[in-house]
Every structure is written in C-alpha cells, then in structure tokens.
Amino acid sequence: MPQDHPLTFADADQASIPLALLTAEAFDGWRLAQEPGARGWAEANGFVAGPGQVLLFPGDDGAPEAALGGVGSAKDRARGRFALAAVAQSLPAGTYHIESGLPQEPADIEAELLGWLLAGYSFDTYKEKTGKQVRLVAPEGVDTARIEAIAAGEALTRDLINTPANDMTPDGLQAAAAALAHDHGAQCSVIGGTELLAENFPLIHAVGRASDCAPRLIDMRWGQSGPKVTLVGKGVCFDTGGLNLKPGSSMGLMKKDMGGAATVLGLAQMIMALDLPVQLRVLIPAVENSVSAGAFRPGDILTSRKGLTVEINNTDAEGRLVLADALALACEEESDLVISMATLTGAARVAVGPDLAPFYADDATAAALEAGGRRAHDPLWRLPFWEPYETMIEPGIADLDNAPKGGFAGSITAALFLRRFVNEDTRYAHFDIYGWQPEARPGRPKGGVGMGARAILAALPDLMGLEPAE
C-alpha cells in the first residue's frame, strides 16, 4: 500500500549547511582560487567535481560546516538526469541550502529540486526503515508546493508498482484510488464482477473472470469546470499470460503490469493537488489475468463494448482488451483530451529501452507533449500511428485481432488496435510505458517508476489552453 513519504522541503528558518554546486569545467578555476588548506583538502579527498561527488568541510567540532557537490561535465549532464539528486544521495544526513551553482532556467531548477526530493524515496513497507534524512531548504522564489505535489504523485506511482501482487490486487488498486479520491474531494465509483456484463464491459470481464479477485472498472471524477481530461490506465494487477502462460522468467516482474494505472493515479494526484482548472476523469480497468477453467481462450471471439468483435489469438495480449472497453466508455461523453497509459508491449522496450516513454498522437498533440517532456526532464519518444499496418490487426474472421502474427511492429499495432475504440474527432494520445527502473540512477532507485506523467503535466497548459505555471 502507498506509504507516507517525507518528500518535502525543510523549513526556511531551519539551520542548514551551505552547499555549493560545481561543474567539472569550473573545478580548475575553483581550485586555483582556494587557500592552500582548502586546495589540499580537495586533492586529499580526490574531489574533481565528478557526478555526485561530495566534499565536506569540517568545522571546529568536526561536523560539516560547508559542502561542495559535483555535477560533472557537460557530457555527464547531457547523459543523465537529476544531477542534484546524485549529490543528495552522497551527502550525509542533515539539512542543506544551495549557495551557488543551480542552473539558470526555471524549468531546469524545478527539475533539479524535484530530483533532490525523489532521491529521498525508498520503498520499505516490508522491511525496517533505513533511509537517511537529507533535507533541503528550497531557494527563494521557487514554487515549493508545485514541486512537492509532483514528488508526491511520483511517489504514489512508485509505491503502487512496487507493492507485490498479493497486496496490490484489484481490491487493493480500488482502495488506493478511493483513498486518493477521498483526499482530494473526488468521486469514485466501481463496477465489478458480473455487473460488468450487465453494464456492457465484456472484455474487462473476460480477461479478469478467471481470478478469485473479481475484475472491476474504477471511475474517478474531479473538478467542476474547465476542459475535460480523461486518463485511462491499464490495471492488470498480475499477468500470468492466461492460458498462453508466460514462462517463469517473464512472469517475475508482472506485478508492474498495472503501471499504467499507477501512472495515471500519480498524475491525477499532481493535477488535483495543484488544483488545475480541468474536469478530470480517471478510468482504470483493474483485473488479474489468471488461469482457471473459466479463463478466456485462444480462438475465442469476444464482442467489445463498442460492438467491435475481437478474435483472441493470444491471451497474453490482454491489456489492450481491458483498455478497449474503458476507452469506449471514455468516448461516450465529450472530452477535450483522452490519454491511455499502459505497460502494453515488450516491443516498445526493445525499440527504445527502459528510459524513454514511447507515445502516439497527432502532430499538434505530439509537439506539445515533446516540449513538455523536455521542460520536465521526462523524456518521450514519438512512434507513428502507421496507417498501412491497419490490415495487420484485421484477422478476417472478426473485426479485430488482439495479437497479429509475425511479430512485426508490436507496439504500433497495439496502438492502432486501441485507436479503433476512440472516436475519430477525439484528441487522443497513447503511452506504451515500461514503468520500471532496472538499475538505480540518481533520483530513481531500482523498482517502479513513473514515465510520461510529468511531461503530460507540463504540456497541459498548451494542450488545454490553461494559464502556464509561474
């Protein structure tokens, strides 16, 4: 379950240690300007302003009275994110303030300060808490509430993904959504079990019916005025592959198959905490893709909420099925923007690796999202809704094929499949995310991670005609 993370800035009147940030390019100039004692201290400690390097200057009592933090060379900074997070992770416990060395652009400052907060994240629900407290007094003129809200949303996403599937069941995901709704005065309703059939959500029911924990559709609404934004997140809480059973080596990380749901909930928390002037709706089909006598089968033909029939050629291509019914519902009322997020295909990961969030959108929407990603240091990579591949998702025996044979363009054909359930006049973007950090990086420990949410948040003013954040 989500934890209570202290990802906040220290009070401005709190005693703090001055921290100067130094690039590798500026190090020689700094070294030559120092007194012999300071210069010798840096040399003795091997400090050259490399990424994440820290040099502490002890006071008379031995405790640090000042600190230097290295942010590396221009090449280092171009190759990585959150240089300040690397410094924060290397510092001993204490409270600091930044004396010099922050970037010039406000968006870059926000990203670095966010990185500091995210460096304090740890997932320790199931073990003794061991994290150190490295606090920061934020510089003057910074919108601390905004940065803290973004950090809280990211922490929620990470917690939800990191929680094992025995606790993060469809019930658990529903509870997390209900708690978020309660905290922000949103409405949250649920359609579950056989009621899904009565209310015409046949694909969600088919995918989840084999589990002892009933499938459900979570529907959260917030905001009374402004543009309508609908977020749809894949909530497959565990994916065995169904009757097309995954091998054990492929099943080990399947607790993260609800990463799309976790990401839209984290983004929803950011939007609501920042009180953005939008009407927000969040739809999450929450299921477990399990194996039992009642599981849906290869060769089945299922009729979707929209009326399109789908031939099941692989029960392990289940995420697009549950999203299809949710997208159909989303488009039954007017929306200014519909976004789906899902840990949908391995093809996306093969194409761009674990750092980039591939997405699909029209030209104008894509340009706004890409610009938002650059401002938020949340990298995206656009892939095409490639029209000639439409025939690959048409099996002949039904309207659609959930798993085209041949293995080509797996992420693209999945995106084209989902687009069939979106009205042609609806502004739509789809994200095929990974949701997992395979190796620890500054501000991003190994484990669940948000992808694309901060880019979307940064792009919303342009996309929806809102006043930009100060």
From TrEMBL:
Protein name: Leucyl aminopeptidase
Family indicated by similarity: Belongs to the peptidase M17 family.
GO function terms (MF aspect): manganese ion binding; metalloaminopeptidase activity
Species this chain originates from: Marinovum algicola
Keywords per UniProt: Aminopeptidase, Hydrolase, Manganese, Protease
Domain Cytosol aminopeptidase residues, every copy: 314-321
Domain of life of the organism encoding this protein: Bacteria
GO biological process, one term: proteolysis
GO cellular component: cytoplasm
